[in-house]
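Could someone model biotin with this protein?
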Amino acid sequence: MWLDLRAVETRLETQFVGQRMVYLTSTSSTQDVARDEAEKDAPSGTVVVAEEQLSGRGRFGRAWVSPSGKNLYFTLIMRPPLQRLRSLSIIAPLAVAVAVEKCTGISARIKWPNDVLINERKLSGILIETELSGQSVKYALVGIGVNVNFEIEEASEVADIATSVKRELGHEASREELLAALLNQFEVLYETAARGREVLQEWRSRLATLGCQIKVTFGGHVEDGLAEDVDADGNLILLRADGSRVAIEAGEVTLRS
Ligand code: BTN
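Reply:
Sure, complex below.
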């Protein structure tokens, strides 16, 4: 069944996030459409949502499996000031985790920096693409994919590592309810994050990565260590075997536990 946009709109409690929605039954990637929209001065908070993506993409050039009518694939166009740009990669997974919990009662955790996990399997992925103009942000494209009613077993490429709300609940869930809850939560967190450390702390408390021995690949080399903590910018503090520490920025790394 196609997404009922009216049902999403009636649940929205936002000032700007999702107040304009561009809906497509099929597209290459919502990131591409959102980029065009942003270049044409679409307002901050515009959401591009698609039923299906023919070339859905993830971080590090990976593909994002995007079958039709099952899941949520959308990109949020944001125009934050430069100093708030990095908070998007904290807010987005947290909004997904909180919205999933509100709608389903299932608790979700975050794999640093921004994968959302249920029972250690990936439920949602986030891809943030940014366009800068000098020292200011022209726009940021916050792409969010959530496996909602996906039969994971049918997608051999992710069957062993991914999950969906349906798989966890044992029955289908409302994509409309989840999308509205997610957009509502995103706006609340975006506004709250501007005022203090509360959002960072909530994100930190959901990180499944902390305390784990991990291997990170960044800047062309691999580091092993203990994921000790995150700093005020959301960087991961890795404690190496020799006792030294290194701060690792999100976006630069692939991480294996
Ligand atoms: C990842 O985990 O690697 C990030 C996955 C991001 C997927 C979303 S789906 C909506 C948007 N459009 C895309 O092509 N990608 C993002």
